[in-house]
Design a protein that fits this description.
The chain is mainly beta. Helices cover 0% and strands 47% of the residues. A hairpin with a 7-residue loop joins strand 4 (53-57) and strand 5 (65-73).
């Protein structure tokens, strides 16, 4: 009573303590993605939506980015709480590479909503993937590499919306620079139809392949493959009195 101060009944209203979204991280799928809201008071009771509070979602909720959910209390409660969740860009796929003896040019599929891509390179000393470079296009040329050497890379998409939102890492992509070109240092033939050749050894190769043809600029067929550091080979059953041309190349697995 506001006059005499007598109290006939008391009711305790427990304040909202836990306010959570059902999910705070999604991956882009082309559809609207909306988490639900759960509110519990200090006694562990679940408050009722539209009776104890209302929920307002930021528009869109489809493209990669950060989205705000506003919870406004009503009835026995008052105040406002804002929570956020993210939609990350999809995983980078379809990595491919073109290479020279000193460069590897990586390329991958474009990702919807990506503002940039982060390329990682494997460090064999630390045994970790380390950031190589951020690029805005879906390609990167990596220079100053060793010939005949294998490298491992990963790529993931980045969406910038009040901070960086990262997509999942791509699968590990391994590529090797081309080996240097060996040269034939010796080529001899015998009356028994056997051509023997020796070539220079190049570093980093997995082996060599020897090709031959009766024409200088076309028609080459593989004669044989050789293991790493093997620099001698031969081709048998050649026809007497006929001219043959040979090529050797190193390869890297």
């Amino acid at each position: 009573c506001s006059v005499c101060g007598n109290v006939s009944k008391t009711t305790t209203v427990y304040y909202p303590k836990t306010i959570k979204l059902s999910k705070t991280a999604y991956t882009y799928n082309g559809k609207v993605q909306t988490p639900s809201v759960t509110v519990k008071d200090t006694a562990g009771n679940t408050l009722k939506k539209d009776t104890d509070y209302t929920v307002k979602y930021e528009s869109g909720r489809k493209a990669p980015g950060k989205y705000t959910v506003t919870i406004t209390f009503k009835g026995k409660y008052e105040g406002t709480k804002k929570l956020t969740y993210t939609i990350a860009p999809k995983k980078v796929t379809k990595l491919s590479a073109s290479q020279t003896t000193t460069t590897i040019t990586l390329k991958w599929s474009k990702v919807t909503g990506a503002d940039a891509y982060r390329v990682y390179k494997y460090n064999s000393k630390t045994k970790k993937y380390e950031k190589l470079k951020d690029v805005t296009k879906n390609t990167l040329k990596i220079s100053k590499l060793k010939a005949g050497t294998a490298y491992k890379y990963k790529v993931r998409a980045i969406t910038k919306d009040d901070g960086s939102i990262y997509g999942a890492y791509s699968d590990v992509f391994e590529a090797a620079t081309k080996c240097k070109t060996p040269s034939i240092s010796k080529l001899t033939s015998s009356k028994k139809g056997v051509a023997s050749l020796t070539w220079t050894n190049v570093s980093g190769e997995s082996g060599y392949q020897v090709y031959y043809s009766t024409k200088k600029d076309s028609g080459y067929k593989k004669a044989a493959s050789y293991k790493v550091n093997v620099v001698k080979g031969s081709k048998k059953k050649l026809k007497s009195g006929k001219k043959y041309y040979f090529k050797v190349r190193a390869y890297k697995k």
